[in-house]
Amino acid sequence: MNPVFPPALAASIAQMLEGVSRKDLAQRAVKQSAAYRAGQNSGGIAGRDDALAYLLARAPATFAASAAVFARIREIAPDFAPQSLADIGAGPGTAAWAAMAAWASLTTVSMLEPNAHFRELAQKLMPQASIIAGDLGADKTGADLVVAAYVLAEQPERIAGAIACDLWKITGKMLVLVEPGTPQGFARIRAARAALIAAGAHIAAPCTHDKACPMSGDDWCHFSQRLPRSRDHMTLKDASVPFEDERYSYVVATPEKISSGARIIKPPVESKPGIVLPLCDETGLRNPFVAGRDKEAYRAVRKLEWGDWVR
Length: 311
Ligand SMILES: C[S@@+](CC[C@H](N)C(=O)[O-])C[C@H]1O[C@@H](n2cnc3c(N)ncnc32)[C@H](O)[C@@H]1O
Prior knowledge:
Elements: H1 7-16, H2 22-37, H3 48-57, H4 59-76, E1 84-88, H5 94-102, E2 108-112, H6 116-125, E3 130-132, E4 143-149, H7 160-169, E5 171-180, H8 183-198, E6 202-205, E7 223-228, H9 231-237, E8 243-254, E9 262-264, E10 269-270, E11 274-276, E12 279-281, E13 284-286, E14 289-291, H10 295-301, E15 309-310
Helix pairs in contact: 2-3, 2-9, 3-6, 4-5, 7-8
Residues 41-42, 59, 62, 89-91, 94-95, 112-115, 118, 135-136, 149-151, 154 line the site of S-adenosylmethionine.
């Protein structure tokens, strides 16, 4: 899995950015980050340069998170070969690009996006996509694969379950929801997960079961994807390290049960005597210890990472 924009997309973006002041984009990006941190939505993206600032400052990370989720799906469902994709709340088409990179089988891409400035960028970046202007619920056609990435965060938590159920109605084979890996993002994912199960869906990832989510208290289920920062991105974010870690939460729902095993839901803890694997499976949360002296078992788990699927 490559967490960076495919070369064709990177080239189109570079072309769009020719002659655009990076200083101005940086100021716009700072405003957007502050608005997102304050729980506001993308409503502040009020012009082409605001949309460009999102493309340069945020889209690399949201792309990386969607790409990471799609890579997880390919592990658990290697035969899944969607032909059509609906990217709901597509922004500049970030998740659609990540899906196109994951599945060569995709021939039809539709996007739903209420913001005209995002739609303009999305259409330029993916001319073959059909883009609908509208609010959630405006897409009545759906697709094999329906994706909503970083969209529930912009809706009240109390309606996250209802939105997920509406998206489920237009899902042919798989629904994927990706959110920021924050307590608020996870709260929406958890509400969506519970509503989807109640509507008859099965959970394919990250959970390997359809039981109630065992996460409680202040804990939240999230994962992390590292991605390199481009020179532009470093300037824009005034960053000192050439990478960033995007934390995300997600849920994948399918009409049939396809998942089993366990998921590593936190970084494994390695020590001299062995390794502790924080797992979630249908028995709940557990932290098995695999001793180094148990050579075969240790070899089988020693390279496993946070987010990995344990068969
Ligand atoms: C943070 S951006 C995410 C864009 C893109 N999916 C990504 O992963 O980079 C949130 C997107 O959700 C869209 N959005 C917010 N509320 C929406 C609604 N009620 N219906 C449809 N889209 C919505 C916004 O216009 C924006 O494009």
